[in-house]
Amino acid sequence: MILVAFEGIDGAGKTTLSQILFSYLTSKGINALLTQEPFTKEITQLIESQGWKDPITLTLLFAADRSIHLDWIRSKRAEVVITDRYLYSSVAYQSAMGAEEEWIFEVNSKFPKPDMTILIDVKVETAMKRLSKKKDIFNFEEKLKLLSKVRKNTWNWPRRRDSR
Q1: Domain named Thymidylate kinase-like: which ranges (predicted)?
Q2: What percentage of the chain exceeds 70 in pLDDT?
């Protein structure tokens, strides 16, 4: 199995580009699987209903979600798996919220690294414009600050880690 992860801030275009790659591969007869993280609706709903913003709690919940996600992926036996978000999203977002990057990597150390990571970069202002078309952004300034930190973190990790 080849694991391809699309990474970038909210509104970068990960979903669109991962769908384009999936369509291309399947049109060529390749057994591909398109998926995304967070994977389980239950964990997403739990986080949203509780309003949790603690980076430690979120890191652990997203790691649990990733474990369930990977079990599901393995059961599908696809040649190529394309995921909209994966490990580096957790690192970028939870470290932007205050969790230690090395600890986030340690929590996720048992999960396979992607064979390829496609990092999509857009200006935060462009992403915010796209997001505002899709949904209401209740706390615009808070979201803007978070995405700015996440974007900075996203561009730093390839230089600091053995990344793919």
Answers
A1: 6-153
A2: 84
Q: Does residue 38 have a cis peptide bond before it, meaning omega lies within 30 degrees of 0?
A: yes
Domain spans in the chain, listed from the N-terminal domain onward:
2-160
pTM of the model: 0.84
Is a pLDDT exceeding 60 seen at residue 164? no
* pLDDT for res 104: 95
CATH topology of domain 2-160: Rossmann fold (3.40.50)
**Binding site, annotated residues:** 8-15
What's the chain look like in SS3? CEEEEEECCCCCCHHHHHHHHHHHHHHCCCCEEEEECCCCHHHHHHHHHHCCCCHHHHHHHHHHHHHHHHHHHHHHCCCEEEEECCHHHHHHHHHHCCCCHHHHHHHCCCCCCCCEEEECCCCHHHHHHHHHHHCCCCCHHHHHHHHHHHHHHHHHHHHHCCCC
| Annotation: binding site for ATP | 8-15
Residue identified by tokens 């919220």 is 97
Residue 136 is predicted with a pLDDT of 57
Model confidence pLDDT, tens digit, residues 59-69: 999 999 999 99
